[in-house]
Amino acid sequence: MLHLLHKSAPLRLLLPCRPPKPFFLPKASRLGRHPLFPRAAMGSVAGDASRLAYPPVRRDDSVVDNYHGVRIPDPYRWQATARAALVFLCFSRLGCLCLCLSPRRLEDPDSEETKEFVARQAELAETVLAGCPDRENLRREITRLFDHPRHGAPFRRGNKYFYFHNTGLQAQSVLYMQDDLDGKAEVLLDPNTLSKDGTVALSTYSISEDGNYIAYGVSESGSDWVAIHVMSITDKQPMPDKLSWVKFSSISWTHDGKGFFYGRYPAPRGGELDAGTETNINLNHQIYYHVVGSDQSEDILCWKDPDHPKNTLGASVTEDGKYIILYIYDGCDPVNKLYYCEMSSFPQGIEGFRGTQEMLPFVKLMDNFDAQYHIVANDGNEFTFLTNKSAPKNKLVRVNLKNPELWTDVLPEHEKDVLESADAVNNNQLLVCYMSDVKHILQLRDLRTGNLIHQLPLEIGSVSEISCRREDKEIFIGFTSFLSPGITYRCNLTSTVPEMKVFRETSVPRFDRTKFQVKQVFVPSKDGTKIPMFIMSKKDIKLDGSHPTLLYGYGGFNISLTPSFSVGRVVLCKNMGFVVCVANIRGGGEYGEEWHKAGALGMKQNCFDDFVACAEFLISDRYTSSKQLCIEGGSNGGLLIAASINQRPDLFGCALAHVGVMDMLRFHKFTIGHAWTTDYGCSDKEEEFHWLIKSYALLQSHSWYKPATLQYVLCASNEDIPQTNPIIGRIDRKSGHGAGRPTQKLIDEAADRYGFMAKMLGASWTD
After folding, report:
1. CATH of domain 85-100+119-142+517-761
2. Per CATH, is 238-370 categorized as 2.130.10.120?
3. Torsion sign (Cα): 161, 165, 167, 172
4. What sequence ranges are listed for the domain Peptidase S9 prolyl oligopeptidase catalytic (predicted)?
5. What is the separation of C-alpha 665 from the centre of its chain, rounded to a whole number of angstroms?
6. How far is CA 211 from CA 157, 234, 261, in A?
7. Mean pLDDT by 10 residues, the chain (767 residues)
């Protein structure tokens, strides 16, 4: 669920990405290392007689690592692309398309040898993709369906409303403002003017309480690095402010409108680095306060922790403007420390700390990583938190800062459903969102007691965004589902029974939702655990095993795959007769922290077993056959795909792996990869090294395959390798890990990957 940045929210340490929510709302880009994907295996495009010619890859057999007494050759360290190729064992007849959105996380991305390798891989991929007959049909139809107006939920600052809007095919969505909801809207900030190709994206933003200023962060070509700028809203004139070396940061204004808190890393020593291609490990995150109109060199250092350089920090001003809250994370687990500082206690305000060696006098309310604590509301020094402390499905608790030892439950943990969010609204009420079997439920409750007031009417689907503040008597709720591209509800909370009215509804041309169906099944995994899976198809299909089928999964980092609309998947069902499935495997957050932990660290194999069980169900229930089944996943899901095709190559006819975390032994050494060890483990620790070797496919061996020689075998062997379809890497040099991609890139990528899939599965096009 997206919470619009209408109130200061804590920084949730960003993760290897999940599929994007329905369309366009800018979010801070998701963390991720970008290992490049494989060169192809020896083989032929389905139906062709010729074998593909693959670029040769240089080996360096002198590179051997010793992991706790186990020697691991690493002959392709000179460029991580080739090493990523080790993931895809070519001992089956499936086709594999690996999407690397940008070569930004190679160990030596700027070497000429690496650049040449990347260029040759891109050329090879284009040669194969150009031979996919339905590529242009897909591009044309996806473009047609994408070309529809989309709106974000409105929110209020000062005396104006703001919202995002995309006319259809604009590269990036545009921020508008208006005096009232029925008034004329005018453009405030158009990211499309920042670059010719749309690859400069708005990654974060925040508007001051009085509505006079907007601070916004932009990233180039998918980079995680952000530059923050400031604009005067009154005259739409840019301020001279530019803040560099910002990463994984929210923006939180003080209520006097003088400045804001943000997070950044120290500038690199020894000169400037390319913030798009450097791979240095990210250490020593810091919180600063910036005064509007001043130079970044004058910013006030509010907090740093050199004793714990891997921690990531987030700062948030409470809605009453009295406190600054510091959130501290040591990885991607839903746990954090929480400190607070009462800003009214500063004799000379925050600016009084400028030029001193003092940091802000934070009080350590929670100083260990035992649980998650997220502020919902405060009345003076009495705070309400959402937490998973002794409640893996989350609960609401209350504490008085003057008596921090006494915590009381406001809303106990639900027996089955996960408490996803809680927002204070209408002064003394709570808008609560539960997830029940991967579907959202909205309730209005009493803030003091937690008692239920009303359950808000909502179709089966997902709450995609919530626009609300505690003072609001009118709120806006975004909704989506597999068959609903988007509805924004306007909810009046002043009436006895809250009124939910459609404020805006997105309509997609050439799409009739009544011709499609979605159902949810629960599939027993290897150990008997029931795994939810959504299945979308045309209505009344005959279950005869003949349907091309796409199975998508993620399974990590407590991220849930809730129903959302996808133009590409709709086109697959509508024009190619696909069955499209989303598996909610363990490792995600669909049933709370226990579900997450059941697919993390030493339990990671459960993710792969769950995914395989869902694939086997689709075959046994005669939706499809193995030769017509394609699997897809991105980032952590890219790892899922790699492991699945290595462990069960007989089960699939095609695989699409996007920006996968592939090098499970060295990912923690680069950029923010160290944060992911909370889900994967770390090869530096002996026990966890053996988890990684056992669970992940990177270093498994098979009768004809030796991991250190895969590149050599694929390039030079004359053996009769039973791989008959191509394994290629589609590389986009200006997209990073995927956040902020312009619309045309989204369309082109979908046409390429689904065109490849259609050819591998033998699917045909119908208008």
Report:
1. 3.40.50.1820
2. yes
3. positive
4. 563-707
5. 22
6. 5, 8, 17
7. 42 42 30 25 35 77 93 76 36 61 57 85 92 97 97 97 98 97 97 92 96 96 92 97 96 98 89 64 96 97 97 98 98 97 93 92 98 98 98 98 97 98 98 98 98 96 98 98 98 94 96 97 98 97 97 98 98 98 98 98 97 98 98 95 91 93 89 94 96 64 37 57 77 71 94 97 95
Question: Residues of CATH 2.130.10.120 domain(s) within the chain?
Answer: 238-370
CA gap 384, 370 in Å, rounded: 18
- DSSP 8-state secondary structure symbol assigned to residue 705: B
Is 296 exposed, middle or buried, given 0-12, 13-18 or 19+ CB atoms closer than 10 A?
middle
DSSP 454-512: EEEP--SSEEEEEE--TT-SEEEEEEEETTEEEEEEEEE-SSSS-EEEEEEE---TT--
pTM above 0.85, yes or no: yes
Contact at 8 Å (CB) between 704 and 91? yes
Cα–Cα dist 129/306, whole Å? 49
Portions of the chain given CATH number 3.40.50.1820: 85-100+119-142+517-761
Q: Is the dihedral of CA 642, 643, 649, 650 positive or negative?
A: negative
Pairing of strands 174-178, 160-166: antiparallel
Q: C-alpha distances in angstroms, 568 versus 441, 449, 573, 575, 734? A: 27, 45, 9, 10, 21
Task: Write out the E strands in 167-236.
Answer: 174-178, 186-189, 200-207, 213-220, 226-232
The residue type of 524 is: P
